[in-house]
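Figure 2 data, in text form.
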Amino acid sequence: MRAAVLQEIGQEKLEVLDDVESVGFGPGKVRIRVRATGLCHSDLSAMSGVLPQPAPFVPGHEGAGEILEVGDGVTHLKAGDRVVVCWLPACGTCPACKRGQTELCLAGFMNAGTPNFRRPGGDVFGFAGTGTFAEEVVVDAGCAVPIPDDVPYDIAALIGCGVTTGLGAALNTADVEAGSSVAVIGCGGVGISAIQGARLKGAAEIVAVDPVASRRESAIGFGATKAVSPDELADAKQQVTAGEGFDYVFEVVGKSATARTAYDNTRRGGTLVVVGAGAMDDFLQLNMFELFFDEKRILPSMYGGGDVLRSYERTVALWRAGRIDLEGLITHRVPLTEINEALDQMRTGTALRTCIEI
């Protein structure tokens, strides 16, 4: 079958190969025919080494498709079912799951060390235990979440990561208060979803911050009340909050520099929500006095900070009701053979989300 493979960490381009085989099918597993997948910035971070990932590997973790085959013991799925790929499934039995913090379950991460694919030259891993830049993938049955028939594959793919992460950061982690002021730093697909979440919660002012003009323009269409470049943020803070700082600031870049900027633009007693996935050697520096004196809450948000399955259902309901725009997030579409074009669109910021049609 065909899949896009990164041979070595640090390479900027993927090789689209026809000699890849999905492996690992057996009890408790399912084989999925991938129909659509989104390109998430985390894929680029894994390719560059910012996020740890064994190589060679097939990127992609934001996908949807149909079940081709189910292994022994799988009773809730059958061939032909439409599913979204969940890269962080909950085991239901670990301490985090029992506490209701299923987004902190480590079961999914355990899959990342097991090869999902094979080529004549040896094993190939799947990013985050999945690898949706492929025509087929074998995953644990818990990674395949059924979706209603009226949800298109491209929309379902977005729900698999970016939308769930951004919406959840506003709805679950921050629980944005109606009438509040919000700033979102980084307005790709996840940041735009956070903006939509803040709008749903009734935020009075939502300032989108991004260096790319087209993304700033898009942010207004999705609910931001103001959109500025990073060097205009100080003026926006003054205009919107009289210099006090925003009630909520979402950092959706994953770098210490922007996290520090987000902290500095959060009002005393306000909330900084860290959504971006950054590197293990990139340290955010805060002094002990400001931590004590400013009383700002710092809330990391992992995969939307809530029960993933419930978040999926909520997103579908909001989309059906016309309360959120998911179609508009897909600004570009390319076939798998043109995956490197999608990478360029992400790197330059010209795309909110590129849908790879497989």
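Caption note: The chain has a mean pLDDT of 96.
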